[in-house]
Design brief:
- The structure is a homodimer.
- Among the domains of chain A are: 96 residues, Ubiquitin-like (UB roll), CATH 3.10.20.30; 72 residues, Ubiquitin-like (UB roll) (Roll); 149 residues, Nucleotidyltransferase, domain 5 (2-Layer Sandwich), CATH 3.30.420.480; 109 residues, no CATH class.
- The first copy, chain A, is an alpha/beta fold.
- The first copy, chain A, contains 14 helices and 27 strands.
- In chain A, a hairpin with a 3-residue loop joins β10 and β11.
- In chain A, strands 12-11-10-13-15-14 form a 6-stranded mixed beta sheet, with helices on both faces.
- The interface between A and B is large, with 46 and 45 residues.
Chain lengths: 634, 634
C-alpha cells in the first residue's frame, strides 16, 4: 500500500510493458503523453469529449470511480469490461494500464507528393564568390567597405546591408580565409552569411507544410532546383488535441499555453529539417531559407500569434500579409542568418496552404472554370479561373478523419480503407492499410460504406437504416441501429467494428458542409455543375477516395470523372515553388487580388443550401444525374 | 592558520572596512574590482604596467614576495613602506589591504554640456492616433489590414511592415482598447509599437556618447525637441582597464572576454537610460530610439564586433557605415520595438564621436578654414571647411589624463587642476578640484606646470630640468630630477606630489603627437597657422585648460585666442541632433564624403614633424610668434 503523503508512483502500460513515474493526482492521458506514449486524444484531452483515449484497467482500486463523462461516453458494457477514459482517470497509486489497439496513435499513411509545376529557378538568396584585396596602410578601408566595393565592381550590386551576426564573425573568417570568401545575399541586399572560400555550390532551402496533424517537408537544392528528399513527421502539438479547435482552445488559456504550442511547432520544424539534412548528408548551415505554409491557426501558432480570435466569429487573423523573418528570431535552426518566408494567408479559415494550392495547380492562370477542394477537417474550396477566384472554408469536421465516429480513425496502419458490400448477402468486403487486422475505419472507407449501403438499400436517401433489411450485420446496438463492417474475431480490438446511425448522421453533416460550400460558390458565380471544366482534389486522403462513391453520397459535385484530378499535397508543392521563384512571391499580391473570400456563415442561403445537401446525394436529385440511378430506392 | 586545501579566504579593505571573500591564488586587484571596490588600473590590470594599483599591506605573510615588476615600478622606499601593486599580489590567506587615496577611483568632473545647434525637429519615429472600425461578419479583415487601411485613409501612408513582437501583442491590445490605438512608426514604415488609446504626446529618445571612461547621455522629448536632462556614468568596462588599448587587448583574449566587454557596455547604457527616465519621471517604454556615438573601439565593443584589428596596423574597423538596429537585438531595454542608431565611424581611430563633432559644430558648412581638436587619449583633429575636411588621429596617449605620470590622475576630486609658479621663489600655487587636499595632478595643471616652468626657467626648451636653479622644490629623486608641486604635509596621500623628468618626457611625447597631427594636416592642405580662422577645442578637459599655456608648450597651434572656442562634449550634442533630425542622417553620407582620413603613420614627413614638435613650443620657433618671448631662455 502507498502512503497518503507519497507524491509519486509508477504505472505500467501494456502491451508495451513500459513503466513510467507519475505524480499522484495526475490523469493517465497527460502522464502517458508526457512520457511519449501515444494515446489518441482528438479533443486534446482537456475536455473528456472525444472518447478516443479508451484504456482498460482491470484493477481500478487505485483510481477514481468512473466520472459522469465516462458513463455517458463508454456505456454500461464497456465500463463492465474495465474500460476507462485515460483523461478522466486520476492516479491514486500503482496501476496497470492496457492500451487497446484502437486507442494507439499509429503510423499514418503520408501524402507528401503533390502535383509538380515547373518554374524558372530564381531563389531570393544567392551566393557570390569573391577575392578581396587585403588591408594595408595604403588601403585601410573597413572590412565591410572592402567587401562592398569588390561586389560592386565584380557583380555590379550596390547597397549591401550586413546582419549584426555576420559583422560579428566577419573579421576572423575573412582573415582565416585570406580574404577568399563566399557572400550569401538576400534579394534586398542583406548579407546573411559570410563563408570561407568558394561555397557557391552549397545552397539549400526547405519547403514545409505545417499541418494540424502532420508536418511534411521537402529539401530543395537551390543551385539546380532539384528536390532532394521529402519527409513527414507528426505535428508534436497533437499531444494538445488532434483538431484545430482543441489547439485554439488550449492556446486561449494563456500566454504560457500559446508559447508551448509555438515551441512545439518550432521544435517539429527543427526536427524535420535536421532529419532531412542528416538523411541527405547536407550541412544544416547550408540551409538558408524555409518557406512555410499552413492553415491560419498553424501559421499563427508557429509565429506565436494569438489564435483566440480565429476561433470566435468573425474569425479574423492577426495578419494576412506575407512575412519574411529571420530564422533565429523564430528559434529555427538553419544557417544563423537564414530566413523564414510565410506567404499570405487569405482568411481565418483559409490559410497559406490554400495560397500554395493555387500556385501549384496554376489555378489563377486557368482559362476554364475550375474547382479545387482541399479535403480536411476544414475543407477549403476554390472556384473560378484566371479572372476571379471565389473561396470558402467549410467546417466539414473531423468525421472523415475519424473524429466523432465510433470506430473512425485516421488513415494509419490497420485502418479499413476500402469497403464493398454484396447487394444480395449484405456481406462486407474490406481492405486495410498495410494489410493488418482491422482496428477501425478511415475516411475513404466511410465514403465507400455510405455509397455501398445506398446502392444495396441498407440505408435510405435520408441516411436512415432500413430495419426491414434482414442480415445479422444490421442490428440494434447501444447507440441505435448499426451495421457490422468487421466481426470481432477478425479485428485487432476484440470487438465488432460497426458504423452506427449516429456515425452516418455525422458523415452526412460533413458531406453536406462540403457540398454546400461548392454549391454556394457556384451560385455566387452564377454557374452550374456542367460549367465546371476541371476539378482538383487535394489533401491527405484525396488520392485514395473512390470518386464515383464520392459522387453517390453527394460529397463532390457530379462532374465527369475524367475532369477530376488528384493533386495530393498541393500545398507542399506550392511551398516548393515559392522557395524556387522570387518572381512568384512578387506576383503573389496580384494573384491574391483575384481571390475573394466568401464567408459561408454570412450568406443568406446558407441554411437552405446546407439542409438541401443533407440527403444522399442531395435534395435536388437533378444535381447528380450520373449517379442518381445507382441508388437503391426499393 | 589556514589549511593548504582551503579554497577561499577573506580580505579586508581599509579605510572602507570592507571584507570580501576571495579565492586563494587570485590577485587582489581582480578580487577588489569584482566586488565593486574601485582601485585604479589604467593598464587594465593584466599587465602590471601602469603602476597605478598601489596598495599598502603591512603584514605580507599571506602574500607572494614582490615581483620583478613591483621592484621596478615601486622603488626601494615604497617597498619598505609596505607598498605593493594589487595586480601583482597573490592571495595565500587572510590579508588586510590599505587602499591609499591616490589609488582610489574617484568622482570625475563631468563634461556633459556641449555646443548646441538648432535643427528642424523631424525624428525618424512618429506616433499616429487612429480609431479603427471593429471586425464584424461583414468586415472580417485581419487586424493588420484593418489598421493599415485606416492609416492609409487618414494619414495617406502606404506599405506598413509589422514587427513580430507587435503582431504578438496586437490582438489583445486592440480589443482591450476598443480599437482606439496609437501606432508608433519608423520612417521606413515599420510599426514598432501599438499602444492603447492616444499616447501621441509621449515620444522620447536618448542621445549617448559612449566614451572609453565615461558614458554621457541626454534624454530628449521628441515631441518638442526639448532636452529634458543629461547625466554621466562611469563606463563599467573600466574594470578591464582605463584606456582603449587595454580593452582591445582584453577583448582579443577570446570571445568570452569580448562578450563580457559588450555586456558591460550594454549594461552601462541600460543603467544610464533607466536612471534618466526615473529622474525625469518618463516611462522607459516611451523611449523609442537611442542614438549612440563613440570612438571606433567603443562602437565595436557595444555591438560585440571584433576589436582585435583596430589595435593592429593598418587599424581597420569591421564596418564604418551607419547602423540601424533593433534595441532588443542588442539587449537594450527601451520600448520593446525600439531602435538603436549608430552613425558612421570614419576610421579605426576616428569614431562616430568625430562624426558627431562635425555635426554639432556645423564644421562641414563653414566657409573659413577651421581646425577642431578633440583632446583625449586619442586626439582627433579635423582641418578644413565646407569643401573638404582632412582628419587624423594622434596617439597622444594617456599622459594628459594621468597615465604614465607619477602623480598624474584624471580630473577627479582632489586633483590639482591649476598651477602657477612664482618666478622669483619658484614656489608653486595650486588649486584642486572640489578644493580638497591634493592627491595628484590632472591634465590642465600639467599644461600649466610645463608652461610655468618654461616661463621661469626651471626647464629648458628641450624639457630638461635646469639643475642650476636653486630651490628645495627642485631635487634629485628616484627617477631623476623632479619638481615638488605640493609637500607631503599638504597632501592627502602622505607623500610629496612631484613632476619628474620622466613625466615631462611623457607629456612632451603627447603634445608633440597632437601638434604634429595639426601640422601635417596643415601641410597636406597647404596652409599655415595664420590661415586658420577658427579653432574648436572639444573633449572632456577642453573647457578647463589655459589657452596661453597650451600655446607656450606648443600643444595647439599659435592661433589668436579670440578665434578659439571650447565646444565641450560636442559628440553628445551631435548625437542629440541626429536624434532630432532624420534629414541630417540622410545627409550624413554626403557630409562624410568631404572627410578624408589621413593616416599619420603613412605620411613620409611624420617622423621629422614629430621630432620637430618635441621641443617647447617647437623646433621652429617662428611657428609660435605670440608666445615665444614668454619663455625664459636665460
Amino acid at each position: 500500500m502507498l502512503k497518503e503523503n507519497q507524491e509519486f508512483t509508477s504505472i505500467i502500460f501494456e502491451p508495451m510493458g513500459r513503466r513510467i513515474k507519475v505524480k499522484l493526482g495526475d490523469n493517465i492521458l497527460r502522464s502517458a503523453l508526457r512520457s511519449g506514449i501515444g494515446i489518441r486524444n482528438e479533443c486534446g484531452g482537456i475536455f473528456g469529449k472525444c472518447g478516443k483515449c479508451k484504456i482498460i484497467i482491470k484493477d481500478q482500486s487505485n483510481l477514481n470511480s468512473p466520472t459522469k463523462v465516462e458513463r455517458e461516453l463508454l456505456g454500461e458494457s464497456e465500463l463492465k469490461k474495465g474500460y476507462r477514459l485515460a483523461c478522466q482517470s486520476i492516479i491514486r497509486g500503482e496501476v496497470r494500464v492496457f492500451v487497446p489497439e484502437e486507442s494507439k496513435i499509429r503510423k499514418r499513411r503520408l501524402q507528401i507528393f503533390g502535383i509538380k509545376r515547373e518554374v524558372r529557378l530564381k531563389p531570393t538568396i544567392k551566393k557570390l564568390h569573391i577575392k578581396i584585396p587585403h588591408p594595408s596602410i595604403q588601403d585601410n578601408r573597413s572590412d565591410v567597405e572592402r567587401i562592398t566595393s569588390t561586389i560592386k565592381e565584380v557583380y555590379n550590386i550596390h547597397e549591401l546591408k550586413f546582419n549584426l551576426e555576420v559583422l560579428r564573425e566577419l573579421p576572423k573568417i575573412a582573415r582565416d580565409a585570406n580574404w577568399d570568401l563566399t557572400i550569401t545575399l538576400m534579394d534586398d541586399g542583406t548579407v546573411i552569411s559570410v563563408e570561407p572560400r568558394d561555397t557557391t555550390n552549397s545552397l539549400y532551402g526547405v519547403a514545409i507544410d505545417l499541418g494540424t496533424s502532420k508536418i511534411v517537408a521537402s529539401l530543395i537544392d537551390l543551385i539546380n532546383g532539384n528536390l532532394i528528399m521529402s519527409n513527414g513527421f507528426d505535428n508534436p502539438q497533437v499531444i494538445y488535441g488532434e483538431d484545430i479547435i482543441s489547439r485554439i482552445t488550449y492556446a486561449a488559456i494563456g500566454k504560457e499555453q500559446l508559447d508551448e504550442l509555438k515551441r512545439l511547432a518550432v521544435e517539429g520544424v527543427n526536427s524535420i529539417v535536421t532529419d532531412l539534412c542528416k538523411a541527405a548528408n547536407v550541412d544544416i548551415n547550408n540551409v538558408y531559407e524555409i518557406v512555410l505554409v499552413g492553415n491560419t491557426v498553424m501559421h499563427h501558432l508557429f509565429l506565436g500569434l494569438e489564435t483566440k480570435y480565429l476561433g470566435l466569429s468573425p474569425y479574423v487573423p492577426v495578419i494576412n500579409d506575407q512575412l519574411n523573418l529571420r530564422a533565429n528570431e523564430l528559434n529555427i535552426q538553419i544557417n544563423n542568418g537564414g530566413r523564414v518566408y510565410l506567404p499570405p494567408v487569405i482568411a481565418g479559415f483559409i490559410g497559406s496552404d490554400n495560397t500554395a494550392d493555387l500556385l501549384s495547380t496554376n489555378f489563377y492562370e486557368i482559362e476554364d472554370m475550375s474547382l479545387m477542394i482541399d479535403l480536411g477537417t476544414n475543407t477549403e474550396i476554390n472556384l473560378g479561373n484566371k479572372d476571379e477566384i471565389l473561396c470558402c472554408s467549410c467546417a466539414s469536421g473531423p468525421a472523415f478523419e475519424g473524429g466523432h465516429i465510433k470506430h473512425g480513425m485516421k488513415a494509419v496502419e490497420g485502418a479499413i480503407e476500402k469497403v464493398s458490400i454484396n447487394h444480395q448477402t449484405y456481406e462486407a468486403h474490406y481492405k486495410t492499410i498495410g494489410g493488418l487486422r482491422p482496428i477501425g475505419i478511415c475516411g475513404s472507407a466511410m465514403i465507400d460504406l455510405l455509397a455501398e449501403m445506398l446502392k444495396c438499400g441498407l440505408i435510405d436517401n435520408r441516411g436512415r437504416y432500413r430495419n426491414e433489411v434482414k442480415t445479422p450485420r444490421l442490428r440494434k446496438g447501444e447507440f441505435g441501429y448499426e451495421y457490422v463492417v468487421a466481426w470481432f474475431n477478425e479485428t485487432d480490438i476484440g470487438e465488432d467494428i460497426v458504423i452506427t446511425q449516429t456515425d452516418i448522421a455525422e458523415l452526412q453533416l460533413a458531406k453536406a458542409a462540403i457540398y454546400c460550400g461548392c454549391r454556394i460558390l457556384m451560385k455566387r458565380k452564377g454557374i452550374e455543375t456542367r460549367d465546371i471544366k476541371k476539378v482538383f482534389i487535394a489533401g491527405a486522403f484525396g488520392g485514395y477516395i473512390n470518386l464515383n462513391n464520392a459522387k453517390i453520397i453527394g460529397l463532390i459535385p457530379d462532374v465527369p470523372t475524367e475532369r477530376i484530378e488528384f493533386v495530393g499535397n498541393a500545398a507542399l508543392s506550392g511551398a516548393e515553388i515559392l522557395l524556387k521563384s522570387k518572381e512568384l512571391r512578387k506576383d503573389l499580391k496580384n494573384i491574391l487580388k483575384k481571390v475573394k473570400y466568401v464567408e459561408l456563415g454570412a450568406q443568406p442561403d446558407f441554411n437552405e443550401e446546407f439542409l438541401s445537401a443533407l440527403p444522399f446525394p442531395h435534395l435536388k436529385k437533378e444535381l447528380f444525374p450520373s449517379v442518381i440511378n445507382l441508388i437503391n430506392t426499393h
